[in-house]
Amino acid sequence: MQKYLVCTLLIGLLSMCAVAQTSDKQKIMAALDQQVICWNKGDLECFMATYWKSDSLKFMGSRGITYGWQNTLDNYKKAYPDQQSRGQLKFNILNLDPVGEDHYFVIGRFYLTREIGDVKGLFSLIWRKTEDDWVIIADHSSVEN
Question: Where is the signal peptide (predicted)?
Answer without folding.
Answer: 1-20
